[in-house]
Amino acid sequence: MKDVKNPQFILFMVAGLVGIWHLTVAMTSKVGVAGPFMAKPAEGYTWMGIDNAESRFFWQNTDVKWQAGTPHPEFKAETSETEGVWNPLPGYEFVDKSKSLQTAWKAGLQHPDYMAWSAPSEGQWEPVTGYKFIYDGDTFTDAVWDPNHSYEDLKVISLPDQDKYAPFPGYQFIKPNESLEVVWVPGTINYENPKLIAGQQRDNWIANTRSVSPRYRSGGLTPAQAFGVGVVVGGGVGYGIGRRPYWY
User: Which residues lie below 8 Å from residue 150, measured CB to CB, with a gap of 6+?
Assistant: First the structure.
């Protein structure tokens, strides 16, 4: 029988116990080995009751909890409310989540907190059509409605009421309440100048020789009354009205 008081035997037992502990920790998904006798929470976890992930000795309390909103140290991702589930940071998407948390920047993704879209350049954002950024230095802190702003590329204007738009004179929405896409309509009376009507070619105006309604003649019709109003479809995904990058 081994002499339990033998120093070599004691060291052997201690080394064996430490080795078993290291192997046990290495096989768990919530705590990892940080060094000799040291443990550290796995990515996304923190120590219970302390809310930090600093290394500690294994004989200390090593209970951990999942911490939502924790950024990943390597990838552009953060923990979600669901334990073990990661979400890409705003503007990023997973390359292949089944293999790793590697992410890539993608233009056209809506920010979860602001009315903004990811721009083609990584880390850059553009406001949703009809909105403008409020800045603190070089960083935008909010996106607010910007009424009466004309968008030449889309041929629409933002109206005083939030999330509502009107087409430029001569244009009409192809799918009202669904998209900001417009089409030139020959023969349409210019609601800003009833003496003109839309010609056959886009943005070409000709003199209006037809009789004009008194409301047109007096300028009584608004763009909304003349050709309808585009509105943001709440919670829409994709390229609904007001919810697409203006460069599209």
Answer: 156, 157, 168
